[in-house]
Amino acid sequence: MDILACPVCKGDLVLNIEKEDTNEVISGTLYCSVCDEYYPIEDGIPNMLPPDLRE
Amino acid sequence: MVTIEYRNARVNLADQVYDPAEDSYLLADTALELVKDGMNILEIGTGSGFVSAVIKANRDVRLIATEISPLAAECARSNNIDVIRTDMFAGLKNGQHFDVIIFNPPYLPTSEDEKVPGWLNYAFDGGVDGRKDIKPFMEQVHNYLKPHGIILLLISSLTGIDEVLEEMRHHGFASNTIASKKCSFEELVVIKGIKE
């Protein structure tokens, strides 16, 4: 997770963990305070697509 | 679910995700010759995760991958690849983190009426000249590569090998072809680039 950045501004993100196992985050969010945008982590995959490109 | 085995790796495949083919095997074989234990590896556009899975099955490395298709990202994840759903490098922090960056881009010249529906198009569609994604890759890759790091790029003779070598030189990479394989209507090559 320490290698991830906001895809829009490349800034740092704040990790909020909803569910994790011993070595990884299963679900949660990554928040960019500059863009005021949340990026979801679902089934262990961070979705770093900008909101308008998410399906 | 279809699973294939290759060089100690077991890889699940999925619908609407590119099935490993000659290009994937050539890139995986070539990568294994260069990747050493302890390296940090990034694969861009991992698809099923095949190349990354072969590396992880044979080398003790730290490896992450990116992928834009949700179906392919899920497939790669099922193959124990740490995958991030993002467009190329977009969701990655700037910084020279990686010893080797591997990319099997969509490299086939593709016109509007040759596009395939759905996410699978991302695996093939290299734009009209086959080099649509190579240019932005080359513009950004130096931000993520360690000094003297290596890039491995798989393309086809249909992509324009000389043009890609020139693009890499333009961005300051010493580049040469290190592996090749003739297939029915094309020649596949792996190009190695080192930042000068």
Overview of this structure, please?
- The complex is a heterodimer of chains A (55) and B (196).
- Chain A is an all-beta fold.
- Helix content of chain A is 0%, strand content 42%.
- Chain A has a 4-stranded antiparallel beta sheet, with no helix packed on it.
- With 196 residues, chain B is α/β, with parallel strands linked by helices.
- Chain B has a single domain (3-195), classed as Vaccinia Virus protein VP39 (Rossmann fold).
- Chain B is built from 6 helices and 9 strands.
- In chain B, the strands form 2 sheets. Chain B has a 7-stranded mixed beta sheet with strand order 5-4-3-6-7-9-8, sandwiched between helices. A two-stranded antiparallel sheet of chain B has the order 1-2.
- In chain B, strand 3 (40-44), helix 2 (50-58) and strand 4 form a beta-alpha-beta unit.
- The longest helix of chain B is centred in the N-terminal third of the chain and has 13 residues, at 22-34.
- The model of chain B has no long low-confidence stretch (mean pLDDT 96).
- The interface between A and B is medium-sized, with 20 and 19 residues.
Summarize the helices and strands and which ones pair or pack:
The complex is a heterodimer of chains A (55) and B (196).
Chain A: E1 14-20, E2 25-32, E3 37-42, E4 45-46
Chain B: E1 3-6, E2 9-12, H1 22-34, E3 40-44, H2 50-58, E4 62-67, H3 70-78, E5 82-85, E6 98-103, H4 121-124, H5 134-140, E7 145-156, H6 161-170, E8 173-182, E9 187-195
Parallel strand pairs in B: 3-4, 3-6, 4-5, 6-7
Antiparallel strand pairs in B: 1-2, 7-9, 8-9
Q: DSSP strand (E) fraction of chain B?
A: 25-35%
Q: What's the helix-strand series of chain B?
A: EEHEHEHEEHHEHEE
Ends of chain A: how far apart? Answer: 22 Å
- Counting structural domains of chain B, the number is 1
Assembly annotation: heterodimer
Please state the structural category of chain A.
mainly beta
Unreliable spans of chain B are: none
- Residue share in helix of chain B: 25-40%
Q: Which residues of chain A sit in consecutive blocks of at least 5 with pLDDT less than 50?
A: none
Helical proportion of chain A?
under 10%
Q: Give the percentage of residues in beta strands of chain A.
A: 35-45%
Which geometry of chain A do the CA atoms define? globular
The total of beta strands of chain B comes to: 9
CATH class of chain B: Alpha Beta
User: Domains counted in the coordinates of chain A: how many?
Assistant: 1
Mean pLDDT of chain A: 93
Q: How does CATH name the architecture of chain B?
A: 3-Layer(aba) Sandwich
Total number of beta strands of chain A: 4
Average residue pLDDT of chain B: 96
